[in-house]
Amino acid sequence: MTIASICVYCGSRPGLEPAYLHQAGQLGRRLAEMEWRLVYGAGDVGLMGEVARTARENGADLFGVIPQHLLGVERERSDLSRLVVTQTMHERKKVMFMNCDAAVVMPGGAGTLDEFFEVLTWRQLGLHQKPIVLMNIGGYWSPLISMLEQMAAQGFADPAMLHSVRVVEDADGAIDSLARHFDQG
């Protein structure tokens, strides 16, 4: 199976560790090498902007989705293959996920957590079987992984939930995980 589109959730800020920005660039480059389309929040700032910039520079198509109230705030790119403007953040998340074959979650803030938990919840409810890859760069998501394990250990989540999230350390790990998954499909 060929993957057409990968949704990337990540920060609209670069974060403090240089590794975050470096891995965002690596992810954009690798997406383009695989000839996969990037589906993302349409902004040109932070990790989001770096993934898009390097993906585009290396020939990838960019599918951006941005809510009306963020137009101009997140400085949307002018070279998108497709731009969808939504009315709400919820609609943005839905459009992004409905137009992808897999999700990759990089470091980010509350918005990134919201996006991660929404797609994880949808998977738990059986609404999709798309791969979810968590890029745990420098251990950034380790507290989240511990929390998910605690939720399962205390009976608030099915232990199978832990197997729905593929944890990797970097962009190469994310791409390799997705390539293996779809080669088996």
TrEMBL record:
Transmembrane segments: none annotated. SUPFAM superfamilies: MCP/YpsA-like. Keywords: Cytokinin biosynthesis, Hydrolase. This is Cytokinin riboside 5'-monophosphate phosphoribohydrolase. It catalyses: AMP + H2O = D-ribose 5-phosphate + adenine. One of its GO terms (cellular component) is cytosol. Pfam families: Lysine_decarbox (PF03641). Belongs to the LOG family. It is an enzyme of class 3 (hydrolase). Its EC number is 3.2.2.n1. GO terms for molecular function: AMP nucleosidase activity. It comes from the Bacteria. It comes from Pseudooceanicola marinus. One of its GO terms (biological process) is cytokinin biosynthetic process.
